[in-house]
Specification:
This protein is α/β, with parallel strands linked by helices. The protein has 15 helices and 13 strands. It has two domains: about 190 residues, no CATH class; about 220 residues, Rossmann fold. The chain binds guanosine-5'-diphosphate. This is Fucosyltransferase.
Length: about 500
């Protein structure tokens, strides 16, 4: 995955390691513009110092698409004449007479945890690029202050005075589709000027046909979409004929979509960057290898801590990620005393405590020293709590700086870490699904997040169990068989 294996930020002076990477790495090989004010977002200028040089280079086409998008955002984003005119039109007209607006928008509306939010924002940004819409986000107090502004001289925040903080007054996608079915000759005047699209899993889970050309043809002329989503729906976008051509040109390597979009959009704010870099320099920088271990327990009622610890140990020891303990000796006679650091991310303190105690109480057979560090243990997922989300963001980012990553199946928290790190994680199986002699973990095929609730129907309404047979770069997710994920050519060999 990486070109070179060098110790990163071994000194506390960031500038001293600049020689390892260069200006090209700094700006993600041209994906990022250099004109931002450094003090307002230090991570944008320093994050390359904490990552190894990546093979994944953005294509020239992606760079040109992003530059065009930035131009659109500058022209149509908040506080511009075009924004004021377009929004006034959208607000005041019930239907869409077609030529009253100069700009089109997509407003991303959050739901569920931070991992879900980040992966769905990345997907919505790609959709915005593909449809020439301006992306605006509805950040509540819980996630404001986590990220820097991504677009130069503009903002992606939906202005506080916008009527589109609520959607109760606008048409929903379901009723829109329903109307569409009952009317054969649709004209532009039939289209609303704003539409609320609910793109997340629900118990009823009706097919929404978002992945179909005919739906996108209808949505194209609606000036404002509000998308409430927690999903990484990029695989759906790749099923749409015109988008597929563009995605292929933008991302010749199909497993780097989140990697590039994530590095473009999600720069830790100065507050988050301070937490990340202090932790990194204090506990991780000196290790020869950094191992990220994310333990997400989805069913604490039916899973014991011991079951999870057993899974973790069996996965890490069997795959030689961590050394076995030397239970015969109290001292190591090996000359190898290299330090490996394990970063544990979990809501529960016991996992970090147990692992740390294990490697402090006994030597390892290899002689390696294993430092175990867990930044937080929040005990439960909390909502509307800014510091809680800040910790979650810090940990996802720190995990993404690992050399080897172990994550929990089905967790979008882990997906963000693997996606930003460009890492193929070892996926721990869900304990209740483990069969007696089956492996405790399996390495993933790609660093792309899994789209959990992928479509179940073809566009003609016929059921389709899995789309992998029709779309070569889409495979069933290893950690959730209803899901689909994008993989590179090499994963298909
Ligand atoms: P998912 O539910 O695993 O798909 O991940 P999400 O990030 O969408 O939602 C889980 C939320 O629970 C996180 O955003 C955090 O708020 C919290 N959480 C879960 N695991 C951890 C953890 O290891 N560390 C921290 N700090 N928070 C966690």
């Amino acid at each position: 995955m990486w070109y070179i294996n060098v110790p990163l930020v071994s000194s506390t002076n960031e500038e001293s390691v600049i020689s390892i990477s260069n200006e090209k790495d700094k700006f993600h090989d041209g994906l990022l513009v250099s004109e931002f004010d450094e003090a307002s977002c230090i991570s944008r200028f320093q994050s390359h110092l904490y990552r190894k040089v990546s093979h994944h280079k953005p294509s020239r086409y992606l760079i040109s698409k992003v530059r065009n998008y930035e131009e659109l955002h500058r022209r149509c984003g908040p506080n511009t004449i075009a924004y004021n005119k377009s929004m006034a039109y959208i607000e005041n007209s019930k239907s869409n007479n077609g030529d009253g607006t100069m700009c089109k928008y997509i407003v991303w509306s959050p739901t569920n945890g931070l991992g879900n939010r980040i992966i769905s924002m990345a997907a919505t940004f790609l959709y915005a690029i593909l449809t020439n819409r301006v992306l605006l986000v509805r950040f509540g107090k819980d996630i404001s202050g986590l990220f820097c502004e991504p677009f130069l001289n503009s903002t992606w925040m939906l202005p506080n005075n916008s009527p589109f903080w609520k959607q109760d007054h606008i048409e929903t996608y379901d009723s829109f589709l329903e109307k569409g079915r009952s009317k054969t000759n649709k004209t532009k005047e039939d289209l609303p000027s704003a539409l609320f699209l609910y793109h997340q899993y629900t118990k009823e889970d009706p097919e929404n046909f978002f992945h179909c050309d005919h739906t996108q043809d209808l949505l194209r002329d609606i000036p404002l979409l509000i998308m409430q989503t927690d999903q990484y729906f990029v695989p759906s976008l790749s099923m749409i004929t015109s988008f597929n051509l563009e995605i292929n040109k933008m991302f010749p390597e199909k497993d780097t979509i989140f990697y590039h979009l994530g590095h473009y959009l999600f720069h830790p704010s100065n507050a988050a960057w301070g937490l990340i870099t202090r932790f990194y320099k204090t506990y991780l920088a000196k290790a020869v290898e950094r191992i990220g271990l994310q333990i997400r327990v989805f069913d604490p009622q039916v899973t014991t801590q011991k079951e999870i610890m057993d899974l973790v140990l069996s996965c890490t020891i069997k795959n030689k990620i961590l050394p076995k303990l030397d239970t015969q000796n109290s001292l190591s006679y090996s000359k190898n005393h290299t330090l490996k650091a394990v970063l544990v991310a979990s809501l529960y303190p016991e996992y970090g405590q147990n692992l740390r105690a294990m490697y402090l109480n006994k030597p390892s057979v290899s002689g390696e020293l294993i430092g175990v560090y867990q930044p937080s243990h929040e005990k439960q997922q909390k909502f509307h709590d800014n510091m809680h989300d800040m910790k979650a963001w810090t940990e996802m980012y720190l995990l993404s700086l690992s050399d080897v990553l172990i994550t929990s199946s089905f967790s979008t928290f882990g997906y963000v870490a693997q996606g930003l790190g460009g890492l193929k994680p070892w996926l721990l199986v869900r304990p209740h699904m483990k069969k007696p002699n089956s492996p405790s973990c399996e390495q993933d095929l790609s660093s792309e997040p899994c789209f959990h609730f992928a479509p179940m129907h073809q566009c003609n309404g016929m059921p389709q169990k899995h789309f992998a047979s029709s779309f070569p770069h889409l495979l069933q997710c290893k950690d959730f068989n209803r899901g689909l994920k994008l993989v590179s050519d090499s994963a298909l060999l």
